[in-house]
Design goal:
The complex is a heterodimer of chains A (164) and B (630). Chain A is built from seven helices and five strands; from the N terminus they run E-H-E-H-E-H-E-H-E-H-H-H. Chain A has 164 residues and is of the alpha/beta class. Classes of the chains: A alpha/beta (164), B alpha+beta (630). At the A-B interface, helix 1 and helix 5 of A face helix 9 and helix 10 of B.
Chain lengths: 164, 630
């Protein structure tokens, strides 16, 4: 199994470093960014299998960051790790709410255990990459529902996307 | 204009009459009221006002007929034709009736009503009467002297009067107004104001007849006020004592208390009065078209200007001004009716300036008696209206303050909870990292595993507390939602299970599987947390070796939900039981800042109740009852 590459984005330095350590010890290749800007720079230079990010960050919020990462890396999986306090105590409810604001592959709330995090990351990698070309094209076009009806449209969109 | 060598004298132009007649009387209705008062002053028992409004066929006409003493020619010349003349002062001394006015200009009010006036007047026993025709337009000239304008008269038999009759008829033609329905209604109201609604005049009647309108025709009556919030009535008995009663909308129907006060008010024997007070500006229907004020009626006929808007003869407005508006009586909501009689109160006379009553012992006594009754009314307002209102508003403000405090606490704890989560997350990761790394390095040790488990357990516990803070601080204390109260109680209790366990307290939760209710979950949570925390504090302080126990019970009982939190602690000491719900009664307000005082306020603001049962040495049970649909 090739080593999977994970990008971790969190504005809390110690959360970031401890999480990186946790994933590194679990065998992933990990790069980290404390700022959304740095994360985008890393995405230009490297390709990732998974990105883990908090939704509340100074400068740029997680929703926007994820959308911009997907523009350059349409196939990347995402795990949202939220420190947001929510009135709904059930994790499932929090996930449901998060899903309304951003579409990610998995949702976790802080404080999560290392074991759980590693399991989750492995879980989203094992999932088949989205074979649906419509879904891929949609992701690339920043979630906007373009009029992609045929494979030709999708190819056109992909071409447009590569030019950018 | 000189007379002799060294004397000057004023002359008036004829126009003076126009000034008086048209401009002094504020409205047509008041002009008629003025003429009615003249009739009253002439000793009339009855005055009939016949109005024939202008129509396409006929010009309008107003006729005011009284059965007073009438005037012979000489007197007519001396009195009626002499502007500003009045011999009413003399009448004050000896007349059977104390006159309502003595300015001597009332007759010019006729000019306000119509361009022409015909006066028919006859004294008792005379065979002929006097007929005078006045064309007011003759007075328009500013060049002519007042006395240069002449009016024709004839002495003739007046068929409308019998030989034994006396009286005066004022026939006003070429009316200046249309006299529509609205104005006629207003006229009836203005006339009614002259009459005492509580003691109808026995010797004076006003009858308004409107041609073609039976609805507007008929004797004038002033209807009594209705629906006042507080009514204070009083009467001076024959032996000078004061009988007083109080009733009104704010009192129970049968709670009208009556008392006899031993004051010496013998000069006022027979006096009766009523004060009506409205807590809000009364409607026209309630006030029967009257303006606020304390009026005095002599034998059923109003003494002006007592009680009119510009007089403050009882010093109510003055008192209010001195107290910077903190007086309890608002003058515009007070209506007073005081009835006196000529026979019983001969000393209560009007001054010539008609500003007040002549300053006699009786008049001073009247003012003092009335002021005392006003003070009684004022105290009634204070104790029965204002103070309960203040108490209520204080409680409401306290609840609002508590909510505001809660909101600011929420914002703070929300941020705090978020802050706590970050380091908690990194501690959790790092602790696991150590274990993982040690494992990778080949170190396997049961102590490390246990340390790892302990750290995890404590992190879970801290996380529970963060969630507790979050759950409370994200809620609102105002609205009620339909929810499963049982699960709310169970969730809140779960936060305390660990805490109780570590303190060796047996924590029992007896909650039904589900209990649907429309309540404020945050409120229930706060109160519950507060009660459980108090119970834990109580049990921790316990020195003896008894098995310590806290029991939370939830039950639905009919329309109510009943929540109990009991402990088997020392009980609440007898001396602090009565004040346990008061502010600052306990030092245990705890970190959440909600003491029992606040619990009570909040529970009450949701129409609930909170109380306790306690037994020294045995323990305490706090009970919260909330309506199921709140």
């Amino acid at each position: 199994m090739p080593t999977d590459r994970v990008l971790v984005v969190d504005d809390e330095p110690r959360v970031l470093s401890s999480m990186c350590r946790c994933l590194r010890l679990a065998g992933f290749r990990v790069l980290s960014a404390g700022l959304a800007r740095d994360a985008l720079t890393l995405c230009d230079a490297h390709s990732f299998d998974v990105v883990i990010l908090d939704l509340i960050m100074p400068g740029m919020d997680g929703v926007e960051l994820l959308a911009r990462i997907r523009k350059v890396q349409p196939l990347v999986r995402s795990v949202v790790l939220s420190g947001k306090i929510d009135e709904d105590l059930a994790e499932r409810d929090i996930a449901r709410k998060l899903r309304e604001s951003v579409e990610a592959d998995a949702y976790l709330s802080k404080p999560v255990s290392g074991t759980r995090l590693v399991e989750t990351v492995r879980g989203v990698i094992v999932k088949d990459p989205p074979g649906d070309w419509k879904a891929i094209a949609k992701r690339m076009s920043n979630g906007k529902d373009l009029k992609i009806k045929t494979a030709k449209d999708a190819a056109k969109e992909l071409k447009k996307f590569r030019k950018k | 204009m000189t007379e002799g060598n060294d004397k000057l004298r004023f002359e008036a132009s004829a126009y003076l009459q126009t000034l008086i007649g048209r401009e002094l009387f504020r409205s047509e209705e008041l002009a008629i009221v003025e003429l009615v008062k003249n009739a009253y002053d002439s000793g009339a028992q009855r005055v009939v006002i016949a109005v024939r409004p202008q129509s396409l066929k006929e010009p309008g006409e107003i006729e005011i007929r009284d059965d007073g003493e009438g005037m012979a020619l000489a007197r007519f010349q001396r009195v009626f034709m002499f502007a500003g003349y009045s011999d009413r002062l003399r009448q004050v001394e000896d007349a059977a009736r104390i006159p309502t006015g003595e300015k001597g200009i009332g007759r010019f009010a006729a000019d306000r009503l119509g361009r022409r006036l015909i006066v028919l007047t006859k004294v008792k026993g005379a065979s002929t009467g006097l007929r005078v025709e006045i064309d007011w337009s003759l007075f328009k000239s500013r060049q002519k002297k007042f006395s240069d304008v002449t009016v024709p008269y004839v002495q003739e038999a007046l068929p409308t009067f019998g030989r034994a009759d006396s009286g005066t008829i004022l026939r006003i033609t070429q009316l200046r107004e249309q006299w529509d329905r609205e104005q006629l209604v207003s006229l009836r109201r203005a006339l009614a104001q002259l009459l005492d609604p509580y003691q109808r005049p026995t010797d004076f009647e006003i009858d308004l007849q409107v041609a073609g309108s039976p609805a507007l025709s008929g004797p004038i009556r002033q209807a009594p006020l209705s629906g006042s919030d507080i009514e204070v009535g009083f009467a001076v008995t024959e032996d000078g004592k004061l009988r007083r009663w109080r009733r009104g909308r704010i009192y129970e129907a049968d709670s009208g208390r009556e008392e006899i006060l031993a004051v010496d008010a013998s000069p006022l024997a027979g006096l009766e009065g009523r004060f009506f007070y409205f807590l809000k500006r009364p409607t026209k229907e309630q006030s029967r078209g009257l303006l606020a004020g304390v009026r005095v009626y002599r034998d059923g006929f109003r003494i002006e200007p007592l009680g009119s808007q510009r007089t403050d003869w009882l010093g109510i407005s003055e008192k209010r001004a001195k107290r910077h508006g903190h007086a309890h009586i608002v003058p515009s909501r007070l209506f007073g009716f005081v009835s006196i009689s000529r026979r019983q109160h001969p000393d209560l006379k009007d001054t010539t300036s008609r500003e007040a009553l002549i300053d006699t012992a009786a008049a001073r006594s009247l003012v003092s008696v009335l002021q005392k009754q006003l003070t009684f009314l004022e105290n009634s307002i204070l104790t029965d209206v204002d103070q309960p209102r203040w108490t209520q508003s204080r409680a409401r403000k306290a609840v609002e303050l508590e909510r505001a405090r809660f909101q600011s606490l929420s914002v703070m704890s929300f941020g705090l909870a978020h802050e706590l989560r970050q380091p908690l997350q990194s501690i959790r990761f790092e602790a696991e990292n150590i274990t993982t790394r040690l494992g990778q390095l080949g170190v396997a040790d049961p102590d490390i595993d246990e340390a790892q488990r302990n750290i995890d357990a404590d992190i879970e516990r801290i996380e529970k507390n963060i969630q507790l803070i979050a759950s409370i601080s994200s809620g609102s204390l105002e609205t009620s939602d339909e929810l499963d109260l049982a699960s709310v109680v169970r969730d809140q209790c779960s936060f305390f299970a660990t805490r109780c366990a570590t303190q060796g307290i047996d924590f029992q939760v007896d909650v039904p599987p589900a209990l649907q209710a429309t309540v404020n979950g945050t409120l229930v949570g706060m109160v519950l947390i507060n009660l459980i925390k108090n119970a834990i504090d109580e049990l921790i302080a316990l020195q003896d070796g008894r098995r310590r126990r806290i029991c939370v019970v939830l039950r639905g009982e009919g329309p109510k939900c009943r929540l109990e939190v009991s402990d088997n602690g020392a009980g609440i000491p007898e001396e602090i039981r009565p004040k346990i719900f008061r502010k600052f009664a306990t030092k245990k307000t705890g970190g959440m800042g909600v003491g029992l005082y606040n619990c009570k306020l909040l529970v009450r603001s949701h129409a609930g109740e909170i109380f306790f049962e306690t037994q020294t040495g045995e323990g305490t049970t706090f009970v919260v009852e909330l309506p199921k649909i709140g």
